[in-house]
Amino acid sequence: MAADEQYIFKPEAKKKISILFGIGILLFVLGVIMAMNSGGHHEGGDHGSIEVTKNLVASTNPDASPAEEGGHHGSPVWLKRIYTSLWHNNIFFIGIGIIGLFFVAIQYAAQAGWSTPINRIPLAMGQWIPVAGVLTLVIWFVAKGDLFHWTHHDLYDPQSADYDKILDQKSVYFFWLGSKGGFPTFYILRMVAFFGLWYWFFIMIKKQMLAEDIEGGTQYWYSARKLSAVFLVIFAVSSSVAAWDWVMSIDPHWFSTMFGWYVFASWWVTGLAVITLIVVYLKDAGYLKMVNANHLHDLGKFIFAFSIFWTYIWFSQFMLIYYANIPEETVYFIERMKHSPYSWIFYANLVLNFVLPFLLFMTRDSKRHMSMLKVVCPIIIVGHWFDFYNMVTPGIMQYNGGVGLLEIGLALIFFALFLWVALGALSKMPLVAKNHPMMEESLNHHI
Amino acid sequence: MSSTGEKFLVGIFDDEDILLHGVEGVRDKGVKIHEVYTPFPVHGLDEVLGYKRSRLPIAAFLFGLAGTILALTMQIWMLGFDWPMIIGGKNFVSLPPFIPVTFELTVLLSALGMVATFFIVSDMKPYKTPRSYDLRSTDDKHVMAIDLAANKLSKEEIGQILKANGASEVNEKNF
Hints:
The structure holds two protein chains of two kinds. Chain A contains 17 helices and no strands. By secondary structure, chain A is an all-alpha fold.
């Protein structure tokens, strides 16, 4: 049977994460200074084409004259860029946290045995959910005016020059229970409810798993499975609605029926890559002795398969909009395909998240060797960070967006915080579920 | 059926654990095993027999690549050069609408190519009479066939090795 193991969050690891955090702060501050000195709008390039394409922005009202824009988006460009990057990183890391819980739930619902020795890592990642919930609410209330065009009340006032008929018709989705253009009660209720539900299921499932360690028996496994099944149903709906609320509503005129799946696919494959990376580094540090090449192979297959799944969703969304060629839908892709830096990210996205994982992870050996996993997992994590960048930034920053020290610094800050929370949670529970009814099966896992 | 003159020694094993140890023991003695037939998949058997991993995935990749190239050249030639048509105002050669067909042909050629490769490599063809070393291998016995021509040891010596390694009976089979 499995031996006891306990992860110790050593001072060296804490020091490394602190250094990562420090570098992040340094880059962020440098980035902010650079952004402040670059002085507002980009003046480079030919002005004419910008004026022409201004009407092709999915987030704003195509009928509004360009002069109106200044009145709406009050914050200076550098501050907007900080807000955008905060929201982008926050959305990206919410995904990694919630996918931790989702992975555990999938394992229980599918009665999977192979994953037993690694299940504590995704569970610990779920500890990010409450942190993400607080961050989301704080960032939302601080930056809503800059991030979400639909929050401006004069869009819903028929007397106003900014009156937007399309958004007025959609307003119930945001403002139900309250007045149009006021406090978005329905929207905020959903936000709080999703984080509340996710966190509640996280606590309940974790409780079953840890009680099993002490008391043994199969009843905890059965109750965890029941909770997981209910959570999966709730997550199926909430992840989709969250994707509309937090990402798609940045471009409120635009809509895609694939969007919920698209965000989920991106979250899911990133989460799998993070789980695998933590497993590989813990194994390097001498933990997880019962994890062998067969378990790594299964994780690798997961990443390989869902990289292709993400590409499938990406293509399904792109292809339909491309072929139908309806202006109100194609603006979304024209913004992202015709303008730097979004354009190169748009194509790099496919290379990083499909071509490279597909070719590098095709052979059996590549999925079984830690050295290869250490190459492909970071590629996927960085690739999907850019994927979310292109979902969030163009709608807010329009033609002033950029990827620089500011964005990279904030990503490192979030990454360090996430690792601190997840590894801290991991050190507070036994690393091995020694009384898990399927432990024996997993020890003999062979593919 | 005409005789090919091939002579085999056939060891019968009652249990898969005995079989697995038997295969190891027989191979340790330097006997080359022609093939082992079991009524159900025995986990780990291919490892003790020392089989290398199949190279079928490489064939699958190459057939898939052939499908991709075939699909793209076909569509680009047809819709771009041979009979250009305006569809939805798109360019004659526009990649996105070609992707679904490319995907399907990749999968199709990869799958068919794999099946064909497997059949050829395993020498499975129409009108071929399958050899049965012992009919009970489809019922409840594990059957180990040893080609006498491929081994230096005599029939009696191999028979003793088989018995010593757990075979419940040892028969001769000539084709």
